[in-house]
Fold these 2 entries.
Entry 1:
Amino acid sequence: MSLAERQDMMTDNAVWDGGMGSVGDYIALLKPRVMSLVIFTAFVGMMLAPGTLHPVIAGVALLCIAVGAGASGALNMWYDADIDSVMTRTSKRPIPDGKVTPEEALAFGMTLSIGSVLILGLLVNWFAGAFLAFTIFFYAVIYTMWLKRSTPQNIVIGGAAGAFPPMIGWASVTGTVSLESFVLFLIIFMWTPPHFWALALFKKGDYETAGVPMLPVVSGETSTRHQILVYSILLAPIGISPYLLGYASPFYGIASAGLGAAFVWLSFDVWRLREGDAARRATLRLFKYSIYFLFLLFALLFVESIAGRILG
């Protein structure tokens, strides 16, 4: 069945006879794995920001950022239900699986979006609230509705949405943003293309079937491998930047340099091994390592921020 036929079928109300999914189905709409990364990076942004928030207000801010991220995920799944239904990685999501109707997902996403922005603005500050609103709009409209289906640079530009949370966390404390918070953004922004392109190489057939113009589909695997290596080389020094700018310790500088070197080495493997099982294994290794890389960088910054507050 072609994608066009699938899309026609998605408009048939009979597909959605079930609806009113379980609590677990609605949690799945929030993309909890993505949300966990958003929560963590936003929290690190809050911890590194100069100044303090009352613990209750800080908790409210973090909850609003998390809910806003979940709302973005729900809106993404609402709009992408047609292509999700033809990709093996996403075919069991609540909407294509018939657990939740598109209308329910849209209402859920919009309610959470409006609620999270209003509460963050009213109880924390309106700059952070407006930043959260812009992030939701950027992910749901700019990336999901426009870039994802129109350009192989979808991940490069759209990745900004996933890189904003530490800046929102910083803004929740300070009411503004700074060079330090922008560096946190830049780390995630430059990490996103090699991370997702590694997945796209591994799942190229899915994207071809769905008609999504991911880089391996449009420009080919060789070009994608070149781009992965270039972005990885650019990412490595950016990961060290918190030390270079003076708000991380020499230990962070050494550790981040080692993590960045490993990222470049694994990317070089992806560039070098281009055929057969060896190439697939190299791609999967990079994808898995990239997750640990980002977590460890932000974990190091978090631990140092805690130590700095304790030691005064």
Note: Residues 1-17 have pLDDT under 50 and may be disordered.
Entry 2:
Amino acid sequence: MAAQKFSILRHDSYKRMPWKNGGGETVEIAVSPEGAGLADFDWRVSMATVATDGPFSVFSSIDRTLSILEGAGMTLFIEGREPVLLTQESTPLPFAADAPTSATLVDGAITDLNVMTRRGRLSHSVRRVRVDGSDELALGSETALVLCHRGHLDIGDRTLLAGDCLLVEEAAGTQHSISGMAQLFVIELHEV
């Protein structure tokens, strides 16, 4: 079994770039392979501020999951599905990034967390975890990211502040002692 590798990604080091459709700005937390662009990534984790109603960028052969980080929420209109209201309390929503999709804001701008994987190569899962004190965090995939959305978290001897992310490689089947007061998003990436 290979040794685990931990990389702390600090919120002030994330890469800012325009949306694929030019309609806003995205903040890239992590991408693989490193340095990949929007056309050739295997996986990508980013945040975006959505300030107006409108269409989403279309990504061919990509699956995505959206979660609301800030704001009142938005209603998503995904081709072939009933409209979905997504709020900060909603379960992260998976859908095909190549399905034509548009959004209507509920009450002003929102910030979302966007996880994308290339269909046929990888799949992913996203779960929201609240931490209040000490606990154990189980990771079931080879590659996992732990985003500290609010508060602070100690995971082993590493500290994450609000906005920071921990990238864990060779993570499958591992348990991690965690403590703090935080809201986390745990992203697990699975090879197909």
Note: The mean pLDDT is 94.
